[in-house]
């Protein structure tokens, strides 16, 4: 760990659902630092707390105890709207199920986060077209999600996540619904954004060969970090 | 943001076109009903007021009989011509007095016949009732005194008996009386009670009494008060005079009625207004039901689009932006319904006004109010679903299947 200030920092984060006898401890004191430009794969069996951890990192959930610092800002102290603004301006999301808006063209799906940022229509369209171009979907702008293959849909979702040039890209099993060829294409894109644009990537995955694209692999077990090691991909 | 929300709302409306139309139906019917009722109601009120004004608001009608409650009256001695003469002599501020007796009778000319009403009266009948002569003349004082066989007919009678020809100098047979047509009344159309005011034959009172009725009774006396006279004062003077003439002792009820047309006018327009008010209340209920329909469909829509809401929240939509999106959608739904309702109401009220022969009055404020009300219905009933959408937990919403 260098002296550089980390982009994200979890300090002894606990997350408990329910209370008393029925309490479920999803995170039991997780501490983690992620530097700007890192590419972290989060692994672990289901129920190990990795999804809860992703929700907290994505500012969609609050820790029960401990602190989550995003660029030194204590996310736990923010209101719901402030956390939404944080997502709007600094975060990009990629989901296992793509989560594109139905009956809405690829281009309009990519434009969506820019609408909430208040970007004007012309600029929005141009930026969305560029983003679709970087994921190799030029010519597919006006197709609806149901007219696209799974791989194409995930690339639209990636375009939507990076069109705002976020600091942090959170990917929740982005290749979970794809065959190995499409999975490699998606991973190549994520690696490229991480290397060329310096976007920090945190990705949950079950597959070891997908995790191998990352610079660092964090293993969760029973609400705690079991192992945290570099893969040697980093320079 | 509003622009984007509007665009989204219209798209959402189009996507579920059938559902949207069915949802709007309540509002469409409500708005259309309110406007149609108000338009027809104010048309009817205006018509009644105008007709009464054309009858003369200074008109009083004296009829025989004791008032015994709604629709009932006991028989009482009829009036005589002398009563009318006494009124002229003794009641001040009077312009005209028209004693009348009527009977229905078939009027026959050559091979044409027509069932009409024959009224015997004096020349004052025409001034008191504001009737103009279109052709010919009314009967003279000497004709009235002598009981001459002359008559003045209404436009309907002329049309039925003479077609396009002039009726003047022709002879009409009324029961045993054969009389010469000396005048034609200008058409006046239907009265507010729906009777044809042009379906009448007027003969001198004496002629009627002798040759048609066979007695000297007078059924009704119409009195017109002078301009600026207080009809209430005149009414009381008439009552006093007639009580004396009919020997009604103090404490006994009148065996006649003096009705003031002003009173009738107020009563009629009051009734129309009340009917309009009641029907409008029913229409308002249908707007309310329409609003509930919108709320229902918006709740369904919010549930159906849970995942979409989750995506928007995750990507950076604020609570109020989600709220706005669904509110705008509800308002677009309700106010589109309102607009369709207004257009329908314009067409329907125009058609109905023609059918009911009521004047059609364009009521812009009512339309503006109805539109504003429908938009308000959208806001009020869209609020709960919109809040439900805005308060969703993005994690839960994204997990929703």
From TrEMBL, chain A:
Keywords: ATP-binding, Nucleotide-binding, Transport
Molecular function in Gene Ontology: ATP binding
Cited SUPFAM superfamilies: P-loop containing nucleoside triphosphate hydrolases
Residue ranges of every copy of the ABC transporter domain listed in the record: 8-234
UniProt family annotation: Belongs to the ABC transporter superfamily.
Protein name stated in the entry: ABC transporter ATP-binding protein
Source organism of this protein record: Methylomonas rivi
Lineage of source species: Bacteria, Pseudomonadati, Pseudomonadota, Gammaproteobacteria, Methylococcales
UniProtKB/TrEMBL annotation, chain B:
Membrane topology: Multi-pass membrane protein
Localization annotation: Cell membrane
UniProt keyword list: Cell membrane, Membrane, Transmembrane, Transmembrane helix
The protein's name in its UniProt record: ABC transporter permease
Membrane spanning residue stretches: 21-41, 278-302, 322-348, 360-384
Family: Belongs to the ABC-4 integral membrane protein family.
Organism: Methylomonas rivi
Domain MacB-like periplasmic core: 20-240
Domain (ABC3 transporter permease C-terminal): residue spans on this chain: 281-394
InterPro entries, per database record: ABC3_permease_C, MacB_PCD, Macrolide_Exporter_MacB
Main location: membrane
